[in-house]
Automatic annotation (TrEMBL):
PANTHER family (UniProt xref): WD REPEAT-CONTAINING PROTEIN RUP1
Domain of life: Eukaryota
Keywords: Cytoplasm, Flowering, Nucleus, Repeat, WD repeat
Natural source organism: Mikania micrantha (bitter vine)
SUPFAM superfamilies from the UniProt entry: WD40 repeat-like (SSF50978)
GO biological process terms on file: flower development; regulation of protein-containing complex assembly; response to UV-B
Location in the cell: Cytoplasm, Cytosol; Nucleus
Protein name: Uncharacterized protein
Amino acid sequence: MNNPNLPPPPSDQEEITSSTKFEWDFRVSAVVSSSTAGAHISDTLGVIEVNSAGTLFATGGIARKIRVYCLNSLPPLTDHATACQFNICTPAKLSSLKWKPGSAGKIMGSADYDGVVTEYDLETQMPVFERDEHSGRRVWSMDYSHRDPLVGASGSDDGTMQIWDPRDHDGGKCVGTVQFGSPVCCVEFSPFGGALVAVGCADRKAYIYDVRNMVDPVAIFDGHQRTVSYIRFVDDRTVVTSGTDGCIKMWDTENRCLIRTYRGHTNQRRFVGLSIWRNQGLIGCGSESNQVFVYDKRWGEPIWVHGFEPDGGTTTEHGFVSSVCWSQVGDDECTLVSGGSDGVLKIFSGKRKLLTSIDS
């Protein structure tokens, strides 16, 4: 009899892969820095989002601006003023950004430190939707579903995750609320069209809910020693969580068990970003050691680490990598966008090199 607490056995393809060694070559393809000396003090990048086509990315953070960049035409070394296609000034510091599905890349959703969820029309650069239902408490994360009808979710310091209808422009009608009793730090809908939404909380736990029945969670994952700051879907039955206990964990949502723990980066008190390149199962995150880390989902040790040197060679004693996002485009080549507490952006290009046991 199979042990239900163990992950499922590898498929034939996974067994073939395990006998073959893949190496990824990464290089810095572009650096975007601030043109103003000392701007890093107020320009920490809290969120980066690449669009589904892999052509644009947007950033937000302490500077109270949504900046939009063309991913494929950045020069090797530039600054925000030159590289940015346009920016939208926002009334508060930004904690979360999402490209709205079905909007042809024209609508950007945001969540801010004042507890407001806002949608912006990127063509007019004006707000077209606003929702302020978290009692003024900071909204850490927001997301959109990938199924019909489209709904949004937001998680806040008020201890709630709220599901709401973005078609209702009169404040976004609430269609579901879950009370957690501690701050909600991250929410993400399954990007595979299912009805699942994942939630991470300051109570050290992660939860999976079916949006059609929000009374009880489908699964509860209790393994982190501190706040769960990020949760991301790897595929339709697997999620990864990141905590301020300095580790990333992969979970099986069907068998409700831990698959693997990833360690190497430093994370004790800050948001350092978490992103999954689903095409090849690579996990990217930042670190309070001011480095970018990449893990292969099959192994607990990092496969690549890169230092985030301070802009202009100046010393940033407490610098850290605060946000990362993969482009989901590509198969044997990949792109990772990362941002630092000093406002610097670095774009990394990765290429897979196949080495058989004879080559190695």
